[in-house]
Amino acid sequence: MDLRDSLAAKLKAARRLAGLSTRAVAAKLGRRFSVSHATIANYENGRSVPPADILACLASLYDRPLNWFLERTKKLEGVQYRNLKSRVRSADLHRFEADVQRWIDAYAAIEASINRPLKVSIKIARIRARAKEPGDLARRVRVEFGLTENEPISSVIDVLEKFGIRVIDNPTNLRIDGLAGRYHDEYVVVLNPAVSNDRARLNAAHELGHVLLGDCDVENPQNKERERVAFDFASQFLLPNCQLKRAFEGQSMVRLVRFKERFGISLAAMVYRAEHLGFITKPTAKALWIEFARRGWRAREPGTVRPDRATRFEQLIEEAISSGRMSIKEVADLAGVRPDTIRQRLSFAVGLHDDNALEKEGADVFRFPG
User: Fold this and answer.
1) 3-state SS class at 180
2) Domain range for residue 35?
3) How far apart are the C-alpha atoms of 350 and 328, rounded to whole Å?
4) 36-87 pLDDT, tens per residue?
5) Which of 16, 174, 217, 329 is the most buried (most CB within 10 A)?
6) Given this model, what pLDDT does residue 247 score?
7) How far apart are alpha carbons 5 and 270 in whole angstroms?
8) 176 φ, ψ (degrees, to nearest 5)
């Protein structure tokens, strides 16, 4: 992406994140400049470039550093969502994607600044060449990682990163579980951590499926068939069919919960697949769903699955600041946010949900003694 296109994309993203229409921006600029909403749209489409004084005014209006607009970045494309899309407004999706874009830009910039590129252990092209059907693909990935069908996936995030896929958490109240997309010739996965641990693991595996199946490399919009195939990959990757069948032997709920905890996958996903594969009958599945609802398990299942969180981005931020290579303000400028927002990310990454927790400690990051 050249500088002109990058500037256009950032102008559109910043406006959407500010929650303003092109008409509202033109009205606010009207106090100093004679700019129409069509002119603002032209800036965002790359048809024209705003003069320096107007760009400075826009940066102030959007509460972004001027330099953020002038740095060239890659564009997020081929986005595949894992969400209930019909319940999310287009404007909210655009704002979410703009938010994601700035964090991915900052992630890549910090990697370059401290010379810590994400190392690729397994090439995606090699996996694609050997298997395309979701079950075969799931088995192939397991083989590449030296795992048998009896062994659980300890960290889905680790698998994604070994493929060279950048993964970040981006909490949101929207009905969005995650997304996968192409970042020039690389891939990114964004996850909503505001879900249960078992669901988070399935979401991460689902987005891995989209990347490995090539869904992010086509321009056609996502569809239900792609979602189904990605789900099939994810569920078989986490819990192979042979293990799923064993889980339902003896019709013991205690046994099911043990398999859930061992393999890190929800009871709901297990029941859904078991019915689909014929391991349990439709009446049995229906009875289980009714019992789950009666006990409140549709909202909160029994069994504990440990967290599998994406925190490499935050680790790089701490390394950059602790080593003195970057200040927290410089990190914030890369993302076009305030330093407090970076502190909030670091707090969340260590499990502190009080947004001001690190700030109250009087330091930008935790520093090891000596």
Assistant:
1) strand
2) 1-72
3) 17
4) 999 999 999 988 988 888 998 998 898 887 877 877 777 788 888 876 556 7
5) 16
6) 97
7) 46
8) -125, 120
Number of domains in the chain: 3
Q: What would the two tokens of residue 134 be? A: 């979701």
Q: Is residue 227 part of a domain?
A: yes
Tokens at 294, concatenated: 């009666």
Q: What percent of the chain has pLDDT over 70?
A: 93
Residues 342, 244 share a domain: no
pLDDT at 27 over 60: yes
Does residue 120 form part of some domain? yes
What pLDDT, in 10s, does the model give residues 270-286? Answer: 999 999 999 999 999 99
Flag whether pLDDT at 361 surpasses 60: no
Single residue among 51, 72, 93 that ends a domain in this structure: 72
Q: Following DSSP, what letter does each residue of 52-101 receive, concatenated?
A: HHHHHHHHHHTT--HHHHHS--PPEEEEEEEE-GGGS-HHHHHHHHHHHH
Reading across the β-sheet that carries 186-191, which strands appear in turn? 76-83, 176-183, 186-191, 165-169
Average pLDDT over residues 157-181: 94
Q: What is the CATH number of the domain that holds 41?
A: 1.10.260.40
Amino acid, res. 317:
I
Calpha distance 234→215 (Å, rounded): 14
Tell whether 118 and 31 lie within a shared domain: no
Contact present, 118 and 168 (Cβ < 8 Å): no
Read off the pLDDT of residues 89-143 as tens digits, 9 standing for 90 and up.
777 887 888 889 889 989 998 999 899 999 999 999 888 877 778 999 999 999 9
**Structural contact between residues 236 and 138, judged by C-beta atoms closer than 8 angstroms:** yes
Alpha-carbon gap, residue 314 to 303, rounded angstroms: 29
Helices (H), the chain: 3-18, 22-29, 37-45, 52-61, 66-70, 90-113, 124-130, 134-144, 156-162, 197-212, 224-238, 241-247, 253-263, 267-277, 282-295, 312-322, 328-335, 339-349, 357-360
Query: pLDDT for 64-75, tens place per residue?
Result: 878 778 777 777
Are 198 and 265 contacting, i.e. CB atoms less than 8 angstroms apart? yes
Number of CB atoms found within 10 A of residue 95's CB:
19
Amino acid letter for position 303: G
